[in-house]
Amino acid sequence: QVQLVESGGDLVQPGESLTVSCAASGSIFNIYAMGWYRQAPGKQRELVAAITRDGSTNYADSVKGRFTASRDNAKNTAYLQMNSLKPEDTAVYYCNRIPVVPGNYWGQGTQVTVSS
Question: Which of 112, 39, 22 has the alpha carbon at shortest distance from 75?
């Protein structure tokens, strides 16, 4: 059974930091690279960070230098540390496998709101 449970979202002020977490089932975590995706109101979901099983990372230009993805393979858990948050980072954040294909399960996501 596929499990993706995101947590850690919060309301923060611009410039602050926040770390969100994703607990995933082994059927996904042990096989695939993992991605952090976000969806802002009225916008399509976008991939902002990717991390392979051996820890190699890649980031969207919009978050490069501010966000850091990591994973604990023993705990089947992924993390996204977000620094210098901006109002435009406001979104629901999801984790999932890479690549995602139509029909893949999505968790409920975690809301990150950046506002003064």
Answer: 22
